[in-house]
C-alpha cells in the first residue's frame, strides 16, 4: 500500500494542485495531511476546500491551532501573527468550524501522523528534540513509524533499539528497516525551507519498506504575485524563490 503524506501547504494552491496531480500519477491509495494548510499563503480557503473535497484526513497544525484559539497567537513572531490575522479574513465560518475540530494526531495504517513532535505535539519542532529525548519518544511509541511536518525541512530519524540517529531524507527512495522505528520529517508543499524551492512530499510504501521523497515543480512566481495582490507581507512571497 502506498500512502502519500503532505504537510505545510500554507495557502499555496498552485503547489497543492501540482502535488495532488503528482500523487495521482503515483497511484497512492491514501493521503494524509500533517496540518498548516493555511497561514502565510494567499489561498487558505481554497486549499482547505480542496483538502476536504478530496477526502484527505488532516491533523491540526500550529497555524490552525492559533486560528481556533487566539491564545496560541502569542507563540508566533509579529509578522506571522499579522499574516494569521489576515488569513482569518479569507476563511469561511464553515472552514473555521472545520479547523476547530481537527485532531492533534491520527493513527492509521499502523503509523502515527502529527504536526510537530510525537506523540501529539502541535507546536514543538523535531529539531528541538536531541537524540536522547528522541530515544525516549521511540521507546514509548506504539507505532513503528511517525510522520511529522512543522519544520518545512527534511529529515529521517531512525532508532535501532539502542540509539536514535538523525539522517538525511534523500530525494527518491529511502529504504526503511522493518525492525527499526522511524520519524519522517516530510518537508513542505507550500513553503519549503530546505534550500530547494520545489514542493515536497513523501510516499510511504508499506509493503516495499520505502519512503520516497518527491519534489514537484509549480508556478511559485504566480503564488508570490498572489501573496502581494491579496495584501500579505511580501517577505512570504520572497521566501518562495
Ligand atoms: Fe508550517
UniProtKB/TrEMBL annotation:
Matching entries from CDD domains are given as: MPP_superfamily
Kindly give the SUPFAM superfamilies that the UniProt entry links to this protein.
Metallo-dependent phosphatases (SSF56300)
- Name the domain of life: Bacteria
Residues of the Calcineurin-like phosphoesterase domain: 1-203
| A GO cellular-component term linked to this record | cytoplasm
Q: Which Pfam families match?
A: Metallophos_2
**Matching InterPro entries:** Ap4A_hydrolase, Calcineurin-like_PHP_lpxH, Metallo-depent_PP-like, Pesterase_MJ0912
Molecular functions per Gene Ontology: phosphatase activity
> What family, per the record?
Belongs to the metallophosphoesterase superfamily. YfcE family.
What protein name applies here?
A: Metallophosphoesterase
- The species this protein was found in: Desulfocurvibacter africanus subsp. africanus str. Walvis Bay
Q: What is the lineage of its organism?
A: Bacteria, Pseudomonadati, Thermodesulfobacteriota, Desulfovibrionia, Desulfovibrionales
